[in-house]
Automatic annotation (TrEMBL):
Cofactor field: Mg(2+); FMN
HAMAP family assigned to the protein according to its UniProt record, in alphabetical order: CoaBC
Name under which the protein is recorded: Coenzyme A biosynthesis bifunctional protein CoaBC
Pathway(s) the chain acts in: Cofactor biosynthesis; coenzyme A biosynthesis; CoA from (R)-pantothenate: step 3/5; Cofactor biosynthesis; coenzyme A biosynthesis; CoA from (R)-pantothenate: step 2/5
Active site: C154 (proton donor)
Binding site for CTP: D274, K284, P300, D301, I302, L303, F319, K333, K337
Annotated family: In the C-terminal section; belongs to the PPC synthetase family.
UniProt keyword list: Decarboxylase, Flavoprotein, FMN, Ligase, Lyase, Magnesium, Metal-binding, Multifunctional enzyme
Taxonomic source organism: Kandleria vitulina DSM 20405
Keyword Iron in annotation: no
Length: 394
C-alpha cells in the first residue's frame, strides 16, 4: 500500500531541487500531495509539480475544492509531512503556529510525523532567532534533516545547503517506521581490515562494507543509537549514525573494546583478517628474489573477546563467510565463540558474497537454523535486528 506524503515547498533558492526530489520519491511508491507558499511559486511553477504528481498543487489557504476544507482534509490520511526546502521565514511561522497560507495552515492541522529540511544562507541559518525557532520545533517533536556545508547559491561558504536525496529519504523512512530500538545502543563493525607489509603494500580482503552499512541503516530506522565502526570503504557516511573509522584488526579490536562497554547489541559484520605480517618493513620492499617470504602472526579474536567479556544484557551476533560446509562451520563458530547468533553466507551462492546489493543468509542460534531467501542487504539488516530483538526478549 502506498504511503501518503505531504511535501511543502517554500521560497528558498533550493526550491528547484524539490522537482527532482518529488520525481525520485514518486518512483519509490509514495502518493504525494504538494503545498507551496506564494514565494515558492516564484521559483518553481505549480504546473511542473502537477506534471509529476498528477495532483493539484495548493498555495492559497482559501483555495479549497468544493465541499472541502483543504488545509484540514489533505493531512487527515497523511503518513508524513515534510517541508523541503524550508526557508527561515516559514520555520519562524511554524514555530509560532502562524497559519497564513496553505502550507503553514496544513502543517498546524497535521497530526502525522513532521519533518523539516532547511536551506538558506549560512548567516540566516546560524542566526540566534533561526536557531531558537529550530529548537522550538524540535521540542514540539518535529524531525530535522540537517543542511549540508559548502558553497551556497549566494556565494557564501558554510552550512545551509539542502540535504542530499539519500539523507532526506532516510529521514522520511525513519519517520514512517516504528522504533522498537529507541533507547538502545547498537554497535556494528563493517568493511575490511588492512595489515601493512611496508609503507606501500598491505594485506586485505574483498569486503566492501555494504552489509554492515545496511544493518546500521536499519538499526537507525528502528530508533537505535547506532555506532558503526568501519574499515576503509568507499561508502558514504550514514546520517544519524556515529561513524568510527579503523584500518587494522588491532585498531578495530581497541575500538570495539571501548565502544562495547555501552552497547546493548553488538554485530560483528566486519571481515577481519586472521593474520598480519609479524614485521612491517620501514621502507618499500624491493623486488629482488623470485620468492618473498613473510612470516604472519595471528590477529586478536575480536568476537571471542566480546563474547567472553559481555555484560549480562548484551546480545552479540557474528558473521561467517564460507566457501564450503557453510552450516557446519557456522554452527561450530557459534559454539566456540559463545555468540548469540551467527549470520552465515556462502561466497559460492549467487546473489550473496562481497560487493553485492543482495545477500542469501542462514541465521543460526543454539536453538534454531533459519534459511532466508535472497533479499536486499537493507531488508536482511531489518530481519537480523528483528531476530536479535527476539533473542533479547527470550
Amino acid at each position: 500500500m502506498k504511503k501518503k506524503l505531504i511535501i511543502g515547498i517554500t521560497g528558498s533558492i533550493a526550491a528547484f531541487k524539490s522537482v527532482q526530489l518529488i520525481s525520485d520519491l514518486s518512483k519509490e511508491n509514495y502518493e504525494i500531495d504538494v503545498l507551496m507558499t506564494p514565494s515558492a511559486a516564484k521559483f518553481v511553477t505549480p504546473l511542473s509539480i502537477q506534471a509529476l504528481t498528477k495532483r493539484k498543487v495548493y498555495i492559497d489557504v482559501f483555495d479549497d475544492d468544493p465541499g472541502t476544507i483543504t488545509h484540514v482534509d489533505i493531512v487527515k490520511n497523511a503518513d508524513a509531512f515534510i517541508v523541503v526546502p524550508a526557508s527561515a521565514t516559514t520555520m519562524a511561522k511554524l514555530a509560532y503556529g502562524i497559519a497564513d497560507n496553505m502550507l503553514t495552515a496544513a502543517f498546524l492541522a497535521a497530526t502525522c510525523p513532521k519533518l523539516i529540511a532547511p536551506a538558506m544562507n549560512v548567516h540566516m541559518y546560524e542566526n540566534n532567532a533561526t536557531q531558537r525557532n529550530i529548537d522550538t520545533l524540535k521540542n514540539d517533536g518535529v524531525l530535522f534533516i540537517e543542511p549540508g556545508t559548502g558553497l551556497l547559491a549566494c556565494g557564501d561558504v558554510g552550512k545551509g545547503k539542502l540535504a542530499d536525496y539519500n539523507s532526506i529519504k532516510l529521514m522520511i523512512e525513519y519517520a514512517l517506521h516504528s522504533h522498537p530500538l529507541k533507547g538502545k545502543r547498537v554497535l556494528i563493525s563493517a568493511g575490511p581490515t588492512r595489515e601493512s607489509m611496508d609503507p606501500v603494500r598491505f594485506i586485505s580482503n574483498h569486503s566492501t562494507g555494504k552489509m554492515g552499512y545496511a544493518i546500521a541503516r536499519a538499526a537507525f530506522l528502528l530508533g537505535a543509537d547506532v555506532t558503526l565502526a568501519h574499515g576503509p570503504v568507499s561508502l558514504k557516511d550514514i546520517p544519524g549514525v556515529t561513524m568510527k573509522p579503523f584500518i587494522s584488526a588491532n585498531d578495530l579490536f581497541e575500538l570495539m573494546k571501548e565502544e562495547s562497554k555501552k552497547a546493548d547489541y553488538i554485530i560483528m559484520s566486519a571481515a577481519v583478517g586472521d593474520y598480519r605480517p609479524q614485521d612491517v618493513a620501514k621502507e618499500k620492499i624491493k623486488k629482488n628474489d623470485d620468492c618473498l617470504h613473510v612470516e604472519f602472526i595471528k590477529n586478536p579474536d575480536i568476537l571471542s573477546y566480546l563474547c567472553a567479556n559481555r555484560t549480562n544484557q548484551q546480545i552479540i551476533c557474528g558473521f561467517a563467510m564460507e566457501t564450503n560446509d557453510l552450516i557446519a562451520h557456522a554452527k561450530e563458530k557459534l559454539l566456540r565463540k559463545n555468540a548469540d547468533m551467527i549470520v552465515a553466507n556462502s561466497l559460492r551462492t549467487k546473489g550473496a558474497g562481497f560487493a553485492t546489493d543482495t545477500n542469501v543468509a542462514t541465521l543460526i542460534t543454539k536453538e534454531n537454523t533459519e534459511d532466508l531467501p535472497m533479499m536486499s542487504k537493507e531488508d536482511l539488516g531489518l530481519v537480523i535486528l528483528d531476530r536479535l530483538m527476539s533473542l533479547k526478549e527470550d
